[in-house]
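Design job #97: recover the sequence.
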């Protein structure tokens, strides 16, 4: 009986300790599990908070970048508009006393310089003339007719945008109309000038430079022309003839040889040359020989000038 009771007691003790050990292990496992769960939840919360924070910062950064880009684009646009306005202002001739003296002394120069001038345009030939000038990086002067500007507004705009000087040749080019009186010469100038200003969308544009159809000297209208010069000057309008020409309007069908002979003869021994050519539908020869004219003048040492450099 005693031995049996001892065994029972021993087994009961073992069971107790075993149960206690198992419970301890279970508690440890549960505790570790809880800790892992807490850590996991903490990591998840940290990740969520961190992600939210990062996304917020990212959105703010994107917003700042977009704002910077918009401001940068706006600044560039403003600068471009300012540059365009400056270029626009440069293309508006402003007549000064220096400019008046420059035109008065246009035929005198210590260095060789050439001014290419085209009368009677714009026309169907102007586009080709502009292309040749662009290829040679030359700015020319176009003495336009108001009546032709009305027919070729886009071409007139191209002249202006490409930096050529748009001067004035009156509206009609009809001698019996333009030379009715000195005042009529001024009227023709003003009408042509207004049409040009409206066409290029520069209301304040005024070339201040007029070329009398047929030239300012001689002919049966000489007295009216002479009186008109005074009226033009009173209105800050200068007049300009030429001292060299190609003869492209002297014959019905002049040849290239004839053009070049005239050019060589009329530019000989001259430093400053204002060359008369014509931009009218019938003057295809002007287009065909323009590159020859340019090459000859360059070979003779002439530098091409614009009237933007004269009237300033």
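Job complete. Output follows.
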């Amino acid at each position: 009986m005693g031995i049996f009771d001892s065994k029972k007691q021993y087994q009961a003790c073992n069971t107790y300790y075993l149960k206690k050990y198992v419970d301890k292990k279970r508690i440890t496992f549960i505790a570790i599990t809880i800790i892992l769960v807490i850590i996991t939840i903490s990591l998840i919360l940290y990740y969520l908070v961190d992600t939210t924070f990062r996304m917020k910062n990212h959105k703010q950064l994107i917003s700042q970048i977009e704002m910077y880009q918009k401001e940068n684009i706006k600044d560039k646009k403003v600068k471009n508009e300012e540059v365009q306005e400056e270029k626009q202002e440069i293309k508006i001739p402003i007549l000064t006393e220096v400019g008046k003296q420059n035109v008065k002394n246009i035929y005198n120069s210590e260095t060789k310089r050439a001014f290419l001038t085209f009368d009677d345009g714009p026309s169907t030939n102007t586009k080709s003339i502009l292309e040749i000038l662009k290829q040679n990086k030359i700015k020319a002067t176009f003495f336009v007719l108001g009546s032709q500007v009305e027919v070729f507004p886009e071409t007139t705009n191209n002249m202006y945008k490409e930096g050529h000087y748009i001067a004035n040749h009156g509206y009609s080019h009809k001698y019996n109309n333009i030379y009715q009186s000195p005042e009529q010469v001024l009227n023709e100038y003003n009408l042509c000038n207004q049409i040009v200003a409206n066409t290029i969308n520069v209301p304040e544009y005024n070339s201040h430079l007029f070329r009398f159809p047929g030239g300012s000297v001689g002919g049966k209208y000489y007295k009216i022309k002479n009186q008109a010069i005074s009226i033009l000057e009173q209105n800050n309008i200068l007049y300009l003839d030429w001292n060299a020409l190609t003869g492209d309007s002297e014959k019905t069908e002049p040849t290239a040889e004839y053009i070049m002979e005239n050019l060589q003869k009329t530019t000989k021994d001259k430093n400053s040359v204002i060359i008369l050519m014509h931009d009218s539908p019938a003057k295809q020869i002007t287009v065909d020989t323009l590159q020859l004219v340019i090459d000859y003048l360059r070979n003779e040492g002439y530098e091409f000038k614009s009237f933007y450099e004269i009237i300033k």
